[in-house]
Amino acid sequence: MAPTLALVGATGAVGTVMVDIMNSRETWPWGEVRLIASPRSAGKKITVRGEELTVLALAPEVFDGVDVAMFDVPDAVSAEWAPIAAARGAVAVDNSGAFRMDDDVPLVVPEVNRDKIAERPRGIIANPNCTTLSMMAALGALHHQYGLRELVVASYQAASGAGQEGVDRLYAEAAAVAGKAVGEVAGDVRQAITAAGLGEDSPFPAPLVFNVVPWAGSLKEDGWASEELKVRNESRKILGIPDLKVSATCVRVPVVTTHSLTVHATFERPVTVAEAHKIFEAEPSVVLVDDPAAGRFPTPADVVGADPTYVGRVRQALDFPNTLDFFVCGDNLRKGAALNTYEIAEALVG
Ligand code: 2RA
């Protein structure tokens, strides 16, 4: 019998992208699909592959008979409900941060460490944070050939990484400055935003429009942002390099959706740009766009809505041996969240 798939958080921002992904897959290994959400959203109708489904309220019994349950919900909801789904016999594939660094929960990017899905003593598999995920397909492909040793990254993160609230705030700030000559004098962007009636209750610690904000996540020890520590810890776990040297700086930019990163990666062995191009071209989930003479490189505005990771600006670092610099863009709501979760679910039954 074809396996049963459940989606918890079906009406949320990532859940909505997940339904879009489910509707657009070429192959479909699933039988019954159950859409699950909070009691507030239960009863809504959502069409999945031509069939109108009624959203069910989250309760232990909705997991009975489910083979794979995908969770696109906040950490606290996953922490409570993924173990319940697993106890009822489902494999829980969780997109929250609740389990990512637990030793007995694999953290999976199918292109990089697909074999880890078999090692799931708690019946839970975690999906990485979108910033780490945006570079993993490209970095993993290089690591498998050349052995990654050191990683220095800077992120350029989209507003939607902070949820719908982040997107709404960016649009509101953009409306506040539209048509105004601001950004020429310190503080004038802030003044325009305040004059338009936007309060201090922003998900960002500074104006995002006409600006860049060197902060994502919460404050951790010694001035690090949680997002930067996630890049370090998750990269080590996914790539299976516990002592990988990593330094990350995470920055929010006025882009609606699609995270970008600059990557400075040092390998055990020398790697040329031509070799790196070949590896990227051979990786099905990577698209290489690297012709700077023709002005061709990936940008978030051209990548949003796409499934692959886009890579460009590949260069050999002039002063660092065995080191490449490159630029990646990945849709943070697709490969960065819903798509990777779905690909794990698919790998479980593939
Ligand atoms: C962000 N990576 O962009 C986070 C969302 N998980 O804020």
TrEMBL record:
Binding annotation for phosphate: 100
InterPro entries: Asp_semialdehyde_DH, Asp_semialdehyde_DH_beta, NAD(P)-bd_dom_sf, Semialdehyde_DH_NAD-bd, Semialdhyde_DH_dimer_dom
Active site: 130, 259
Endpoints of the signal sequence: none
Single GO molecular function: aspartate-semialdehyde dehydrogenase activity
Keywords, in A-Z order: Amino-acid biosynthesis, Diaminopimelate biosynthesis, Lysine biosynthesis, Methionine biosynthesis, NADP, Oxidoreductase, Threonine biosynthesis
Binding site for substrate: 157, 252
Residues in Semialdehyde dehydrogenase NAD-binding domain copies: 4-120
Catalytic activity: L-aspartate 4-semialdehyde + phosphate + NADP(+) = 4-phospho-L-aspartate + NADPH + H(+)
EC number: 1.2.1.11
Enzyme class: oxidoreductase
Metabolic or biological pathway: Amino-acid biosynthesis; L-threonine biosynthesis; L-threonine from L-aspartate: step 2/5; Amino-acid biosynthesis; L-lysine biosynthesis via DAP pathway; (S)-tetrahydrodipicolinate from L-aspartate: step 2/4; Amino-acid biosynthesis; L-methionine biosynthesis via de novo pathway; L-homoserine from L-aspartate: step 2/3
Binding residues for NADP(+): 11-14, 40-41, 160-161, 332
Keyword RNA-binding in annotation: no
Function: Catalyzes the NADPH-dependent formation of L-aspartate-semialdehyde (L-ASA) by the reductive dephosphorylation of L-aspartyl-4-phosphate.
Family indicated by similarity: Belongs to the aspartate-semialdehyde dehydrogenase family.
Subunit structure: Homodimer.
Protein name: Aspartate-semialdehyde dehydrogenase
Name of encoding gene: asd
